[in-house]
Amino acid sequence: PVPAPAVEGVPAADAAPEPVAGPVTEPIAGPGDTQALTPASTADPPTATPAPALATAPERISVVTAVPQQLPSDVTHFTGRERELAGLDALLRAGSGEGGGRAPTAATITVIAGSGGLGKTTLAVHWAHRVRDRFPDGQLYLNLRGFGPTDSAMTVAEAVRSLLDAFQVPAHRIPATVEAQTALYRSLVADRRMLILLDNARDAEQVRPLLPGSPACLVVLTSRNELTSLVVAEQAQPLPLDLLDRAEARELLISRVGAERVAAEPDAVAEVITVCAGLPLALAIVAARAAAHPRFGLEALAGELRDARGSLDAFEGGDATTDVRAVFSWSYHTLGPDAARLFRLLGVHPGPDIAAPAAASLVGVPVPQARRLLIQLTRAHLIAERAPGQYGFHDLLRAYAVELTRAYDGQDERHTALHRLLDHYLHTAVAAGAAFTPHREPITVEPVRPGVSVGEFTGHAQALLWFGLTYPTLIAALQQAAETGFETHAWQLAWSLMEFLDQRGHWHDQRTVHRTALGSAHRIRDLTGQAHACYGLGMADLRMGRYDRARGHLVRALNLHGETGNAVGQALAHGALNFAGEREGRHDEGLHHALRALKLYRAAGHRSGEAYAMNNVGWAYAMLGDFRQTLVHCEKALNMMREARDRRGESAAWDSLGYAYQHVGDHQQAISCYRHAVELRRGRGERVREAESLHRLGSAQLAAGDRAGARHSWQRALTRFDALGHPDAQRLREGLARLGRPDG
Known about the structure:
Elements: E1 24-29, E2 60-65, H1 82-95, E3 108-113, H2 120-131, E4 139-143, H3 156-166, H4 178-189, E5 195-201, H5 204-207, E6 218-223, H6 228-233, E7 237-240, H7 246-257, H8 259-264, H9 266-276, H10 280-292, H11 298-307, H12 324-332, H13 337-345, H14 356-363, H15 367-379, E8 384-387, E9 390-392, H16 395-408, H17 411-436, H18 460-483, H19 487-504, H20 507-523, H21 527-543, H22 547-564, H23 567-584, H24 587-604, H25 607-623, H26 627-644, H27 647-663, H28 667-683, H29 687-703, H30 707-724, H31 729-739
Helix pairs in contact: 3-4, 7-9, 7-10, 9-11, 13-15, 13-16, 14-15, 14-17, 17-18, 17-19, 18-19, 18-20, 19-20, 19-21, 20-21, 21-22, 21-23, 22-23, 23-24, 23-25, 24-25, 25-26, 25-27, 26-27, 27-28, 27-29, 28-29, 29-30, 30-31
């Protein structure tokens, strides 16, 4: 008999081989071990019929062998996994030579890999039952026990002997050595059309001797490891298994507890699906509880999960194979000490994803070593590489890592690891900010602790890419810093995010992080941090059209920078107040703030700030209708920006010049200036400013009589405004309506 499989998400059941289809007479040769296959009789043969020489021809003996039919029971209500089932079907067609492809010359192999609880075994068994009639010579099943509560993976010797037993080969016909037994097994499956399901494999070394050489066989492997070497050497086809999406998770619940109960409590169902993170085993445990208590509402189960959030206590299914914590532990206990420590400390990491430099800082090792450890965790399917170089895990695995690090890593070690991690994110964000907006006045940050890796950036594009990938993690790190006593890290991380969030239109995030930063700076009475946080809040409110609130934050930032003697900070606040005055129609007030900023920058010898302030002065004059002064000041600003190779500032000057030329009647020159601005802003990923320049470009095109060009520019601008929630979106929509249809 073959051991019952540990089917993920389904309690294990005793499984005995199904009745065989009938005896088959099979000539068996004992390759390399003929003596072990000689008949049991020791009588001397007749003299007239001498025994053949063993060295010249192996003896072939007919024995009765079975047609094995060993598949475990299929699940009653299998749902989802349509994409994976289609992939297995395609593999079957390719292995049989269907579709006109080249006939295979070796066994077709697929590896279903994924973390514990994903239902790898359930999927493999269900598909095997669907196609069992395609394999008339039998179906083999073997649980290799690569991961389980006993931590006793099946040896190759045990596995081969089990496979020979499945053919009912008499014990006295089995060779003595593992190598000869393996050869005998391959001889038995040669030229047969068989499905071989090798479940729960530990590694490639455990599996490789069990692979048949016959091209008529199809092998399905399941493992928590990727078995990459089989993909490389044996050309196995990987079939990675992921979490269920929300629709699949809902279908699983319907199949277990009924459509009526699921439809009756949609909010509770949605919460259950969220907390279970799409893990089939977790969903199956919750569904089993619901089925066992049909009078209980699903809201009660959702409340139980809500109360246990951050813990795995709600996901105990009654035995080791249906306990989420136990299932995860089988993978964890296969790790080496360094990989295990990294996995535990990932419970300290606050964000959704982590890259190798951050992981290196978390555990205090060089980046190459951290990258190797991350690869080990990925191959064990304890984390996933969600994007190139970006690793993460679902919420239940995160909860498991948190439990482990609290159990095995002391509070001091966790605190030190978090300090290194926050140092990494802060210093890397500051370095990225220097490449993203090189004109910006830097802040002073404390040196990094030993063991911290800091990223380097060669230009704006690289910094933009890093911010785009990392900013959700930076926000999470900032919030954790504020909650765990790292207040300076919190407000400085908010400062480092300011320009990226502003330019990309993430104004709600910008407001959230600067509110957190303000609270942190206030707790430690850091006036500099409070001033920068107030400025960030003011700019976010300005972008969202909350002008009164923005003005209050900016005036407070101005006063705080005055208390600390930060002239550049005061100039920044004046520049933002100039913008606020322009948006509110207070153009005299706007000019006043622009001139104050220019004076402060000049006094501080801040050449880049002076160029920006010069452009702002020109824009303030434009708002007052003095376009001659606009052209004078903005031409000076453009030349200064070009000299400094500041593309961001250059785009602003081109935009201002376009506005001035448009209002003095030189529409073609205005169009040319706006196009320069749009091109520069698009190239830098400045979505907000690109949309604003497109809006003004359309106005200039309309004034020049190019209605089609105006419509095209305004439609592009409106698409961006709508995506950003820009306050000018409605005004632009009204302009497009007035413009009418293309033939209107």
